[in-house]
Each structure stands twice: as structure tokens, then as C-alpha cells.
Amino acid sequence: MKTRLLFALLLVACGPGASDDGTQGSGSAGGEAASNQNAPPPDSYVVQNAGGGAAPTAAPAIGSGTSREDPLMACGPVDSYRRVAEYRCPDGSTPLNGDPGAGQQAREGNVGPNARGHIIDLYRVPCATGGVELYVDMYGCPEMQGMLGGG
Length: 151
Prior knowledge:
Blueprint: H1 2-14, E1 72-73, H2 77-85, H3 100-105, E2 107-113, E3 119-127, E4 130-137, H4 142-148
Parallel strand pairs: 1-4
Antiparallel strand pairs: 2-3, 3-4
């Protein structure tokens, strides 16, 4: 009898309804979990590949990409990588061959906000005539501007 009571108390103390921080989980037998703090970003943030489902509207191809104040407009990080990967050098070549992974690797970092208040990323594209600096505003579409609270 004492063993059963001890076991029951342990189950109550360590059960799925309580967590270390004192908050309550769902505790349901159906396996439902409490809110996932590491959930993926909302669909409007992720730009899908052609076969991967709906994607937000692509940003208009505005901006030369030559400076922080005249960046190439993109719609999220994946669209930024794609646009950088598709960049044509002055000689007409595309050294990153349209590969978004190569576009991502070309990212040097950010150069801070421009006059619009958007953080601008700097990429270096390896053209035959020398590396070309390409400035990209990944907040250049309505969906991303909405995530900033306007824009």
C-alpha cells in the first residue's frame, strides 16, 4: 500500500501537467504539447521553392544594389539569396549559377539601417573583374514590411 501511494505521489509530482518553471503543460493523453517556443517562422516569412507550395509575393526588382540607400529589394532571406545568386556581373556572367546556397555564402553581414529604417545586408559576388558588393533589403515586399510593423 505504501509503495502504491509513493508511486502515485511521484506521478503527480513529475507528471506531464507541470514543468520545472511551474507553468502547466497540456497534460492531455492525446499527446498534445504546450506552445512550442521553437516553432518555425510563419509561412509568410519563408519563401518556398517553386515546388514547395505558396510563397509570398516577390519583391519588385527595384534598386541597383550598389549602395545602402539603393539596395536590391528582396522578400525575405531566401529571396535575398536567390537574387544574389542570379546576379549578372558586368561581363554578363552569373558566377553563383543561380544557386541560393552560394548566394547565402556570399553574405558578408549587415551594414545597418538605411534611411527607410531597414537593415541592409552586404553580399560580395565573385565576378571575373573583381568582387562586386551587392546591397540587399530583404524587407522589400509588403509581407516582410508587415513583420516590421509597417515600413
